[in-house]
Structures are given as structure tokens and as C-alpha cells.
Write a structure and sequence with these properties.
This protein has helices at residues 46-52, 66-69, 75-109, 118-146; strands spanning 13-16, 22-29, 32-37, 40-45, 53-57, 63-64. The protein folds into 2 domains: 5-69; 75-146. The model is unreliable at 60-69 (pLDDT under 50). The longest helix has 35 residues, at 75-109. It is elongated and about 75 Å long. The chain is of the alpha+beta class and 150 residues long. The protein has a 6-stranded antiparallel beta sheet with strand order 4-3-2-1-5-6. α3 (75-109) packs antiparallel against α4 (118-146).
Length: 150
């Protein structure tokens, strides 16, 4: 999650979205942010500033989002994350089941395909193994998300 209007503070240093320089906020008056960077001073609305600078500037020049700094999630954000986790778990399990069903159907149908030679049939059957590995990976993702460590 990127910066929000509440993250804009006078004296704050923000990394420009291109990653080449930082902007420091000199003052905020109403909806206008007055800033300076290596090229000189400037001003813009808060929303434009947020589009141009998408993270806090760290000393090493790396991007730090507010959540990484010390901006805890609100209760609403936590609820949304829980809802998202639940949806991803269900989707992972459902998709794994579909992939396993496709693998089973492929194993049953390919031997009956008269228009394929034995080499082509083997290529298709070999790909079934990859499908099953992917399905297992999705099931593991669902399990890991169901049992978070924190």
C-alpha cells in the first residue's frame, strides 16, 4: 500500500516514483504541498504529490511504504485483509481441485485419442505431472494462508 494524505508531513522526505531523487516537503497549506528536490522548489496538490512520490525516502534510497515505517493498519484495513485472505484461500482450493480434475480427465481421454501418435500422447501425459505439481502448490498456499504465523 502506498502513501496516503495523512502520511504527508512537513520535513518528510519522499522518494520520487522514478527512484532517481527525493522530495522534501517544506510546507503544506490547505491542499497545496510546497516541496523542494535536487532540481529546485515546486508545489502541487496533495493528490498530485502522492502520485509523484509513492514512498518514504530511506537513507539508502530504497522505497519504504507507510506500513513498513510505522503506520499500523486500521481495523477496517485488517478486516479487508482477512476477507481477501479468505477469498484467496477459497480460490486456491477451488483452482487446485479443477486442475486435479483436468489431470484425471486428461489421463483418461488421451489414450483414446486416435489422431495422436504415441509420442504426442506421451507429451500430453507428461504435462499432467506438471499440472498436479501446480495443484499441490496451490493447496499448500491455501494451507499456509489458513494458518498464518502471526
Amino acid at each position: 500500500m502506498g502513501l496516503r494524505i495523512r502520511d504527508l508531513i512537513v520535513g518528510g522526505r519522499y522518494l520520487h516514483h522514478n527512484g532517481n531523487f527525493t522530495r522534501t516537503i517544506d510546507s503544506i497549506v490547505g491542499n497545496t504541498v510546497y516541496w523542494h528536490d535536487e532540481c529546485g522548489p515546486g508545489d502541487c496538490t496533495k493528490n498530485v504529490f502522492l502520485k509523484r512520490c509513492q514512498g518514504f525516502a530511506a537513507e539508502a534510497g530504497s522505497l519504504q511504504t507507510p506500513d513498513q515505517k510505522d503506520s499500523p493498519m486500521t481495523q477496517e484495513e485488517k478486516a479487508q485483509m482477512d476477507e481477501l485472505r479468505t477469498a484467496v484461500i477459497a480460490l486456491s482450493r477451488d483452482l487446485a481441485a479443477i486442475m486435479e480434475l483436468n489431470a484425471t480427465l486428461t489421463r483418461l481421454i488421451v489414450p483414446l485419442a486416435d489422431h495422436l501418435d504415441d509420442g504426442q500422447k506421451q507429451v500430453v501425459l507428461d504435462s499432467v505431472g506438471g499440472l498436479l505439481v501446480s495443484a499441490q502448490s496451490l493447496r499448500q498456499t491455501a494451507t499456509d494462508l489458513s494458518n498464518p504465523t502471526s
